[in-house]
Write a structure and sequence with these properties.
Layout lengths: L3 E5 L4 H12 L3 E6 L8 H9 L4 E4 L5 H10 L3 E6 L6 H6 L1 H21 L4 E7 L23 H19 L4 E7 L1 E3 L18 H9 L6 E4 L11 E2 L1 E3 H16 L7 E6 L5 E2 H11 L6 E4 L14 H7 L7 H17 L2
Helix pairs in contact: 1-2, 1-8, 3-5, 5-6, 7-11
The structure holds UDP-4-deoxy-4-formamido-beta-L-arabinopyranose.
């Protein structure tokens, strides 16, 4: 039987898809989540897909004594994938202290528990927001980390620094930070997917909710950028491809194949797609017309960013396999399945 992996934030969007891929690889998965931005029936979805029900604990990682008691109770945990964090860029601008407290204290508590035990394998959920607007594209892991455009992005940058400093102080700790570009889509079964609370910030859930009639119209935030069609460019990758990268990272650490105790990898497709291209592709693959309009720019938006994925391709042997079309078909299927079954 493979090792036991703790997935914090495992009822969230990327966490739940990663739990599925870890179970498929034979790992025993435990999920700890405070359910502040996810629903408990995601556990049922994971079980429906894999036939295995992960362990689940409703837990606020900012509560150090509770976390300690939980880890004591699950002493067979050999690796942690840490997703648990608040992640709305806009909300973080309005509530910076909530974001700094939640995202940093939860990580610090995790690291403290790891240091107390011989628990030395950590995969961290980071983000391409640490690059800001890169000077050069595609952006590599050695690109300068810039002042984040939001407290959310800053918590990711600071978290990476905290992990690196802990490794310097305690070389038995090994960690891989995965810098996500733009995760989209849902598991092909449509049993799990993205569950934005309230009005979606992100493009794809707003597109699917508009197509489903939940939103009257999609606003395209600006078409006056210095890009071929004037709309912003991003690197959109299927969430299942992203989840698989976490399994590869966990294996790398558990089998001591990491080259350094702290490694960082970009996870993207290596291709940049504009907002207007996303809309056209969504309409084509799902045979529908989307109601959208062009409005002004959204504050804080990066004009264009996409990944150089050669390091992850070479070192992890990972690359995004799914097409944009597959991702957008899965997003639409999930929207139709989820709303129907709610
Ligand atoms: C993508 C593009 C918008 C909505 C953020 C976080 C990042 C990660 C993913 C957590 C932009 C445009 C969007 C809409 C639009 N989250 N857009 N109309 O901003 O690249 O990244 O989410 O890790 O950290 O920063 O993603 O989906 O919000 O926007 O025109 O209604 O779609 O302007 O160009 P973003 P997004």
């Amino acid at each position: 039987m493979n090792s036991t992996v703790l997935v914090t934030g495992g009822t969230g969007y990327i966490g739940s898809h990663t739990a599925v891929e870890l179970i498929n690889e034979g790992y025993r998965v435990l999920i700890a989540d405070n359910l502040s931005n996810s629903e408990p029936d995601v556990i049922d979805g994971i079980e429906k897909i894999t036939g295995v029900r992960p362990g689940f604990e409703k837990l606020d990682l900012c509560d150090a004594p509770l976390l300690r008691e939980y880890i004591d109770r699950n002493s067979d945990i050999t690796a942690i994938v840490h997703f648990a964090a608040s992640k709305s860029v806009g909300e973080s601008v309005e509530k910076p202290l909530t974001y700094y407290r939640n995202n940093l204290v939860s990580l610090i508590n995790i690291l403290e528990e790891m240091q107390q035990r011989s628990l030395s394998n950590l995969v961290f959920s980071s983000s391409c927001t640490v690059y800001g607007q890169p000077d050069k594209l595609p952006v590599t892991e050695s690109a300068p980390v810039k002042k984040a455009s939001s407290p959310y992005g800053n918590t990711k940058k600071i978290s990476e620094d905290i992990i690196e400093d802990c490794i310097t102080a305690n070389p038995s700790l090994k960690s891989v930070s995965l810098r996500y570009f733009n995760p989209i889509g849902a598991h092909p079964t449509a049993f799990i997917g993205e569950l934005p609370s309230g009005v979606p910030d992100n493009l794809v859930p707003f597109i699917t909710q508009t197509a489903a009639g939940l939103r009257s119209q999609l606003k395209v935030f600006g078409n006056d950028y210095n890009t071929p069609d004037g709309s912003c460019i991003r690197d959109y990758l299927h969430v299942t491809d992203l989840a698989r990268a976490h399994v590869v990272a966990i294996k790398r650490l558990l089998e001591n194949r990491n080259k350094k105790n702290y490694e960082v990898f970009n996870l993207g497709t290596g291709k940049g797609i504009s907002v207007l291209e996303m809309i056209k592709t969504f309409e084509k693959v799902n045979s529908l017309k989307l109601n959208y309009t062009i409005t002004g720019r959204r504050a804080g938006d990066t004009e264009q960013v996409w990944a150089d994925t050669s390091l992850a391709n070479r070192e992890l042997g990972w690359k995004a396999e799914s097409s944009l079309e597959e991702a957008l078909v899965s997003a639409w299927k999930w929207e139709q399945y989820y709303r129907k079954n709610k």
